[in-house]
Amino acid sequence: MKGLMQASRPLTVSASRKGFSGCIRVPGDKSISHRSLMLAALAQGRTRVYGLLEGEDVLRTAEAMRALGATITREGTVWTIDGRGVGELTEPSDVVDMGNSGTAARLLSGILSSHGMNTFMTGDASLRSRPMRRVTDPLSENGASFLTRAGGRLPMAVHGTEKARPITYRLPVASAQVKSAILLAGLNAHGRTVVEEPVATRDHTENMLRHFGITVDVFAMDEGGCRIELTGPVSLTARDVTVPGDPSSSAFPLVAALLVPDSDLLIENVGLNPLRTGLFTSLREMGADLTIENERTEGGEPVGDLRVRSSRLRGVDVPASRAPSMIDEYPVLAVACAFAEGTSRLRGLHELRVKESDRLAATVALLEANGVKVEVKGDDMIVHGRQGALGGGRVQTHMDHRLAMSAIIFGLAADRPVQVDDTAFIETSFPGFVDLMNALGAGLGTGTST
Ligand SMILES: O=C(O)C1=C[C@@H](OP(=O)(O)O)[C@@H](O)[C@H](O)C1
Ligand SMILES: C=C(OP(=O)(O)O)C(=O)O
């Protein structure tokens, strides 16, 4: 599989001449898609996945699970996985390349740590700069060992163990990736694996493990947060999975519709897991006309349709405690804040520094380049809402899909055109994003490869 580094796709974005109306769907949830492929590969039997996100990040996971012995095929939009069983993955004959995906690299590290074989893992330049110690430190406690570059960076060799010990671990950072890596390692460890989570993070791993037939216990802790426990070794039973639309992807057309006048947009079939909906809460606090229709449960996850109309937004104070439920949405929320009336304070953003880019610095740069007054105080970002004409800047996206999409949304609402240095990385999480916005009338062109 080729990487996205091959050709950059710059784009110049001008204000949309018309509002965004109609009915759309966004691609499948990225977190659920990764997990469906991994758990299906660990299950015994055949799993069909409906609505899988066919973005580059998830395709990397599919490729890795194939390299580990699962049979994975695609017919139309349905993916079929014939699993190997827990403890039965086979040693890859080549380096596994996780591309741009932190989720793929971290979760897979957990699985590999409790399989008795050696695996070599790498990623693109962005992923190779991201910290892996947050998973290799706890996972080393189960008997596995890891050899990384300086600073705990990829490429990395994983020396897994078939005699994995169960881990008890209190998460030092709110991270669903770290929690999931430990739980996945625990599937093939002998005894009780325990993860203490002081602040709740997305629980798709726990939900999907239950869907595949195993018991995952969750206890509220007196001091707040919860303790998640499972007993290994387990055997997973293949079960079909239906993936809802990704709320993190819905954020982009949603904010576009809020900012561009005369919009009235329905985004159907969006996942509404309460540990993912912090953005919707924050936008409502800003005065967004955003309602949820047709709420239902599909594939064990709450789902609904989002109805959004253009709104006059005001500044907001987003508490740090909300960050895990909207961690990937801060760049586009900051864009909404730039067009709002008054000042916004987005608190507790330290984790943004270790995403595909330093998203805190890159979001500040995006706003400043386009005439927005913005400050960073500690881990907080303070955005001073519209104080004159906006736009006219050039945005550097640093191999980060969320920055590229946020810059495009900024340009669609701005007074002057915004230049985006590279939109190619949008393929990691939202294939077809530019086409979808164009179908709504955004007039973006398709970008040119260089
Ligand atoms: O578990 C997951 O699927 C994810 C967890 C989050 O990362 P952290 O665990 O690093 O917060 C999020 O940023 C990422 O896009 C997906
Ligand atoms: C942080 C993200 O993903 P990952 O950590 O999987 O690279 C993201 O999609 O915004």
TrEMBL record:
Keywords: Amino-acid biosynthesis, Aromatic amino acid biosynthesis, Cytoplasm, Transferase. It comes from the Bacteria. One of its GO terms (biological process) is aromatic amino acid family biosynthetic process. Residues 20-435 form the Enolpyruvate transferase domain. The active site is at 328 (proton acceptor). The keyword Transferase applies. Pathway: Metabolic intermediate biosynthesis; chorismate biosynthesis; chorismate from D-erythrose 4-phosphate and phosphoenolpyruvate: step 6/7. Signal peptide: none annotated. One of its GO terms (molecular function) is 3-phosphoshikimate 1-carboxyvinyltransferase activity. GO terms for cellular component: cytoplasm. Its EC number is 2.5.1.19. CDD domains: EPSP_synthase. 3-phosphoshikimate binds at residues 30-31, 35, 175, 177, 328, 355. Phosphoenolpyruvate binds at residues 30, 102, 130, 177, 359, 402. Coiled coil: none annotated. The keyword Protein transport does not apply. It catalyses: 3-phosphoshikimate + phosphoenolpyruvate = 5-O-(1-carboxyvinyl)-3-phosphoshikimate + phosphate. It is found in: Cytoplasm. Belongs to the EPSP synthase family. Monomer. Catalyzes the transfer of the enolpyruvyl moiety of phosphoenolpyruvate (PEP) to the 5-hydroxyl of shikimate-3-phosphate (S3P) to produce enolpyruvyl shikimate-3-phosphate and inorganic phosphate. This is 3-phosphoshikimate 1-carboxyvinyltransferase. It comes from Gluconobacter morbifer G707.
